Input
Amino acid sequence: MQCGRPLLLRQQFAPDAFDQVILGCVNVIADEMNPARVAALRLGMGEAMTAFTVQINCGSGMQSIDTAYRYIREGAMDLVLAGGAESLSHAPLVFNHSAVEWYARMFGARNIWARLVALLGVRPSFFKPVIGLERGLTDPITDLNMGQTAELVAHLFHISRRQADEYAAESQRRLATAQKEGWLAGEVEPLFAHDGTVFDHDDGVRPDSTADSLAKLKPAFERPWGKVTAGNSSQITDGASWVVLASEGAVKKHRLQPKAVILDSEWSALDPSIMGLGPVLCSTEILKRQKYALADIELWELNEAFAAQVLGCLAAWEDDEFCKKTLGLSGAAGTIPRDRLNVDGGAIGIGHPVGASGNRIVLHLINAMHRLGLKRGIATECIGGGQGGAMLIEAV
Amino acid sequence: MKETHTPALDVLGQRNLELGPFLDGGQSACPWIHWKLRADEDGIVWLLLDKKGTSTNTLSEDVLTELDEALAKIEQDRPRGLVIRSAKQSGFIAGADINEFRGLTDPTKIEALIARGHAVLDRLDRLPLPTVAVIHGFCLGGGLEVALACDHRVAIDDASFGFPEVMLGLHPGLGGTVRLTRLVNPVQAMTLMLTGKTQRARAAKSLGIIDSVTQERHVRGAVKAAVEASLKSHRPGILVGLLNSAPARALLAPRMRRETERKAPQKFYPAPHALIDLWAEHGGSAAAMQKAEISSFAQLLVTETAQNLVRVFFLRNNLKSLASGTWAGTRIHVIGAGAMGGDIAAWCAWHGFTVSLADMKAEPIGGAIKRAGDLYAKIGRDNHRRIRDSLDRLIPDLRGEGVTSADLIIEAVPETLGLKQKVYAGIEPKMKANAILATNTSSIPLEQLREGLKRPERAIGMHFFNPVSRMELVEIVSHDKVADDVQSAAHAFLGKIDRLVAPVKSAPGFLVNRALTPYLLEAMVMLDQGMKKETIDKAAEDFGMPMGPIELADQVGLDICLHVAETLRASLKREMPAPPQWLKDKVAKGELGKKSGKGLYEWKDGHAVKFHDGGSPPPDTTDRLILPMLDVCVTCLREGVVADEEIVDGAMIFATGFAPFRGGPMHYARARGVDDVSQTLTRLSSVYGARFQPDPGWIEMK
Output
């Protein structure tokens, strides 16, 4: 709501001019089933606005854009509002399965005796809640949580703790600079809480981070020798993002000024235990299809799920064997210069609201390209469960 | 964009009102004008009130006469049961037809008239078959009395109940005092009647006024249940009988009298006290109380207070009718998120508009959002969806992007000409072609504000009063260049946000502030002369003002009072006392009144700390305060700032709380005697100064 209102307010067309609303969201709560539709109605888009919610874990916010892009490309729609939203702070506490069965027996009891018998079956373990968030961030096929997959990627590509901490500190510094310089104005909207508090920037940023200060943190997922810590991982946060997608006809009709054009998109999959490498697969597919070299992409947004995971992707493109055997290239793809990658920081400082990030990085890529006078960029992210999504964007 | 026709629920919603056998075009079995009667397939007779020529049902004499005929027929036909409901979407019955109360002078004639009404409702009460009232929307005064005469009452969730007669200087007059105090806890019944407040359906059910709350789709089921005696109906418990007993009444009545005296002194407002007397003396016997109710009502109706309050009712209707018309706008942009702008935005969002609220800084917008949430929680009670939707529609707009899609722009930035003109210059190029630019200025003439506008005909003044949610009056300030559609749109918009309109022409202070200024300044002169603030205030309260000038000045804010006073002194030819230096010092020091905790009074917990009750103000004090207000009103009439006395009276009552039981400043002046007033002013001017010189307009008033 807070995100969509200012966006719709500044359009020349009325909110009911859209054909569709698509929202990525992973942690849908029972009070707001199909949050896309709830948002559409609350944003005043009219009772006739159809809306659906998509879920591909971390890729949800990008999937909404991709789906919209394909509907428009096929000619079925002209104007779509595509977004991502996540409220991880609202992830529920869940009763374990035995507790649920017990409760059902209590409720189904037809007389006082049956109820009494059911009551006697209660066990203290029933009341230990399962933290929904914990389960949500654990891959069910391999039983590894997301942090653990980053540890594995770091191991396979020899990423050190130090390198991860250095990357994280630099990321924080870049975000702090971007916030201070006002480079996020018009992209990040202030949030006005109902108690009157105004939040005008993401306050998870830690501009004073250094590799040394981060080195003091204990590993978060695999103790005592792990390399992935709370300081070099993305933050678990709430957030939302929306973009407007239009056909050429809609651009003419509403006299819109597009910021970018989507040229291509791709989704790839690999073993869930190394999900962090997802971006490498899908981005490379786009490069091959468009006949670009790595160096032809002027700006990259590669979601910072974990510093070690980002560095693992970069190392994968530099790895001759991996590029030949898994990516089908003739040799190592090359090195992405650090000044062309996540130039304003990323999820490490700003947070990774799971369903929103994919949408945010596409938007930020476009804004950063405009600021830096660049044309061709790729936004890509890894996806829990072993996938990756990428979009090739041209700034106009 | 989706291809759309008429939204589905708009088409189907018309069918929602359950009209029993009248659905699918069933016709009335009888040739009455206001009532329709028809039996359904279960043998239950439905009697619908659809008063001819109005969108609101009221109990006029002819409505009651036809009801009598209908009851006669029902007595004869003896159906299984009777349902009484309204066929109008607006609500059940809003009360008696107040038009019939005007200008009555003979209590005996009134008694005879009222007794006939009683006879009809008694006949309804006595019908030897189950009767059920189905109530949606407002059920007030005489409407509630009709419902109480039925055996059962079923309400739809949007229904509201109340006895507002006390607001007219009366109490219920068709048996309501008797029936309600015998149906529910009489203490709660008396409270309802003494305060005139309305209760929502759920609260009314808890009290016992209604038996069931349901939706239109279940009305037929509820009606059948009522007729077949399977509806769980409220029965007066043992407590009701106990509280109506003589010892209980002897104990409770004095307490009620004390509470009532505090809020409505008997010398000004006899009605609530008469009601307490009625119950205290006759609460033990329904028959005696009913007879006494009739004579008490008749005595009250001929009092000056009641006739004046009835006049106020019509003044209010007049101002309400000025807030009408059609306007298709849906989006509002408010510039300035301060006390006024923020609250205006919140009020508009509550009434269904999408409002963008702009300010140079984020913090005032944040504050406005919080105040909006607090306001909605108070007035929305448990209507969570409306509260949520209103907060959704109130959009913070730091970059002022809402200007381009706004149908109406309300400017509420600080009162400096340069600043306002700068704001207009910035937004005018971005406004929609038929958008309206309204200013909330309280003192800057429109002629100055519109300079520099390329299209001054789109500009108009809309002066709200503080606090926006409680002060119903808005002055619409027009100027000689304003476009007709802008003027009519302003009237229509204010109707949509449920305000009362006083159209005024652009002149310094318009009407209300211009009239209040001498009231406030004279109080300061009195302070300088050594009178105590409590005494000054008492003189005004003794006249019937809701608060005295010193308290009012603190309430409004000494900075605003000073600004208005200085502006008016500079731009009007009228003699006015100069704002004293100590006032300027206080403002400079930040002692602004209620909002800063200290001004002329100290303020604690929202109340002024008064050290004594004021004692006896010296003679002339009241006249010195009140008569200049009347004088300014006359000036405004003479100068054509306001069109007529009814608007003056209405505006002053609803914007300042001017003693309503006096009927307004002009009505009071005429009642007292125009000559008396102007002669008193002349005398005051020779004793206290030329500022009391009566306006030449008094001569034409005769």
About this structure: The first strand of chain B starts at residue 35 and ends at 39.
